[in-house]
Write a structure and sequence with these properties.
Shape of chain A: globular
Shape of chain B: globular
Radius of gyration of chain B: 15 Å
Largest sheet of chain A: 5 strands, mixed
Order of helices and strands of chain B: EHHEEHHHEE
Structural class of chain A: alpha/beta
Number of strands of chain B: 5
Number of domains of chain A: 1
Largest sheet of chain B: 5 strands, antiparallel
Strand order of the largest sheet of chain A: 2-7-6-5-4
Largest interface: A-B, 21 and 24 residues
CATH class of chain B: Alpha Beta
CATH class of chain A: Alpha Beta
Oligomer: heterodimer
Amino acid sequence: MNINKDAKNLTKESSASTRRSLTLREVKDILQCKVLSGEDKLDMSVDVACGADLMSDVLAFIKPNALLLTGLTNAQVIRTAEMVDIKAIVFVRGKQPTAEALELAKEKRIPLLSTKFLMYESCGQLYKAGLPGGSELDKPT
Amino acid sequence: MNDEVLYRKRFDIQGRDFSNAGNVSSQVKAVLKEIGIEAYVIRRTAIAAYEGEMNIVMYADKGELEFLIDREKIQLIFTDQGPGIEDINLAMQPGYSTAPPEMQEMGFGAGMGLPNIIKNADKFEIQSEVGKGTTLHVIIYHSKHPE
């Protein structure tokens, strides 16, 4: 696995496990993803992740340089990603985006991945690998 | 003058046209990026624009967005010919929604739209008349050091 040694440690608390960014390639390996678009962007890294099916909650809670995990597959997911500069999207539970969503993602150059894992499992594995959640970025360091 | 309009554009928003929902906000965002507005301000404006646009798409027959930029602020003025809002205070409460289930399947209509707009706005005004329509006026300041 291609570990990014320079990934910044996002929390300074000694008790917390080391928090770090992940590349999309690492995300792909951890969640055994199929890449649906943006194969050329797998070296891009994400600093934080957000798991949600409600796009208004994504708009309310998302942080910069985020990965979105969702089970929603319509074009509104891509629009939401575009509005708040979400770096990439992982569809959980083996879901496939609609043709409209896929086309829009290609147009907006947003990488899409799909995993068989459920939402809880996907989030848990990425968290275990070090990728922090949004509220951790609010903590003073 | 700080309130001299430097950029003005009017967009039509078609109600129930979910295929194009977000298109207007996308154009708003592109303009702000081109002008070189700070990323944090673009983000707040994009969220307010998108939620406002989704509200018109979800609830109204048609509406429009007037988008204005001057030296100190960005203004988004949404006007729709829609059902209007019976109880504005209730509509502004997080979690309150009158959206049908098919809207919720799209990831919206969970009563977070107006709260999200308010959260990202520096100034917010809403006027609504049942059976006629709703107007939202959002102001976001972009200049840290007004001249």
